[in-house]
Design brief:
single chain; five-stranded antiparallel β-sheet; WD40 repeat domain-containing protein; 6-blade_b-propeller_TolB-like
């Protein structure tokens, strides 16, 4: 059962917190965050010099910290903050810190359902990942590109396995980097490696790798493709086979290769952000058919609509529909759906959200200082001083809106306009 099935989906507007203005006894209050179900607002507050607390609606948790940063809710509604106590760092869930302590902690990661929380950590100048408060047994002198699998069962990062002295070009060219999965490294090393990616069930890992000064490819489970390219972007696993696809640059243009063989002919000025439909029958990407003009391509066929910036590609659960954000001149954001643009133009827009049945699309937008939630290109329940991303009910008939008016947090459930 998806956790949203247990939420309150009764239509209507409800006041969650009468006032989220800073409390008089606090020196300051940081940005408000709202739980996915809309039932809790939380923020870091400065109680006194060197003393920070966590506010939840109208109360403040008993635990205080020397420092606190990077707050946010997990998908299942836990308020997670990196905190410092006795000059050591850890993560606090709903105000309760993990038992493990680190020299530093950053880059929070959540499993898709939120049950697993991970973060990058440094301890005694060695780097690795901590998963639900348990750090990798093996740590490294350098690490980056941290990732937690969607099911939360595995974690990975690019790590440095050979020490490099100043201007040590020989060791660098021989290869000092590889990928560690759950702390265990691949046997092979590379000149560089970037952004490990898990397969859907986390059985395998792929990453971008650099073999020489001029040759790039994709490595899967440590084995590089036999074909090399001028450059590559993030790989993408096919959901129902062992194949891996990735954007590749060849002859100065970008296309897509699958398992090292050209799948989409290199004809674009750029091609990236690959996503497969759930059944693997469709492959989507953001592409630039002309210089400075981007769009979305589906199975190598670009949409006719273009924009100087296209980002935040999202695919419906059944894989039949796609949406993205377009931008003109850095001031006119708009929603693009199935190759057509919604009417509205906004100062800012956030990643669109499909209903589970794929029939509806919603997006949070801002015009001037006012926020709104657009559903199927129609504004729902007016404007807000602040708003958060909308969520559809499991059956797609209703939308949950979390918004603030005059420092009052409102939780609104409305019917989806058609």
């Amino acid at each position: 059962m998806h956790f949203s099935e247990s939420w309150d989906w009764e239509n209507g507007e409800r006041v969650v917190a009468e006032s989220l203005a800073p409390m008089e006894e606090h020196k300051w209050q940081e940005e408000i965050h709202v739980s996915p179900d809309g039932e809790t607002a939380a923020a870091i507050v400065c109680i006194d010099s060197g003393e920070f607390g966590l506010r939840f609606n109208d109360t403040v948790h008993d635990n205080t910290f020397e420092k606190a940063w990077k707050p946010g809710f997990s998908p299942d509604g836990r308020f997670c903050v990196f905190v410092q106590q006795d000059e050591e760092w850890t993560l606090a869930e709903n105000g309760e810190p993990w038992e493990e302590r680190y020299g530093f902690i950053w880059d929070p990661q959540f499993s898709a359902e939120g049950g697993v929380i991970a973060a990058a950590v440094q301890q005694d100048m060695e780097y690795g990942m901590s998963v639900n408060g348990a750090v990798w047994e093996n740590r490294y002198e350098n690490a980056n590109g941290f990732v937690l699998s969607a099911n939360g069962k595995r974690s990975a990062a690019v790590v440095q396995v050979k020490s490099l002295g100043q201007a040590d070009l020989e060791t660098f060219r021989e290869g000092a980097y590889t990928v560690a999965v759950d702390g265990e490294t691949w046997d092979s090393t590379f000149m560089n490696a970037w952004n490990p990616v898990f397969s859907p069930y986390a059985h395998r890992v792929a990453a971008q790798v650099r073999l020489t000064l001029y040759d790039y490819t994709i490595a899967v489970e440590g084995t590089p493709w036999p074909i090399h390219f001028q450059c590559v972007w993030d790989p993408c696993f096919h959901p129902n086979s062992s194949s891996v696809a990735a954007p590749v640059r060849q002859g100065g243009k970008w296309g897509i290769a699958e398992d090292g063989n050209i799948l989409w002919k290199p004809r674009y000025y750029n091609c990236w952000h690959l996503q497969y439909s759930s059944d693997g029958s469709k492959l989507y990407a953001i592409v630039a058919p002309d210089y400075g003009q981007f769009t979305v391509a589906v199975n190598e066929k670009p949409w006719s609509i273009t924009a100087p910036v296209v980002t935040d590609l999202v695919i419906s659960a059944d894989g039949t529909r796609a949406a993205a954000l377009g931008n003109h001149d850095n001031k006119a954001w708009h929603v693009m759906l199935d190759g057509k643009a919604w009417r509205g133009r906004y100062d800012m827009a956030w990643k669109p959200v499909f209903s589970h049945d794929g029939k509806s699309l919603a997006a949070r937008v801002r015009t001037g200082s006012k926020y709104a939630v657009m559903v199927n290109d129609k504004q729902v329940d007016g404007e807000f001083d602040k708003a958060w991303d909308p969520t559809f009910s499991p059956d797609g008939s209703k939308v949950l809106i979390r918004g603030m008016r005059n420092n009052t947090l409102l939780r609104i459930v409305a019917d989806v306009p058609r």
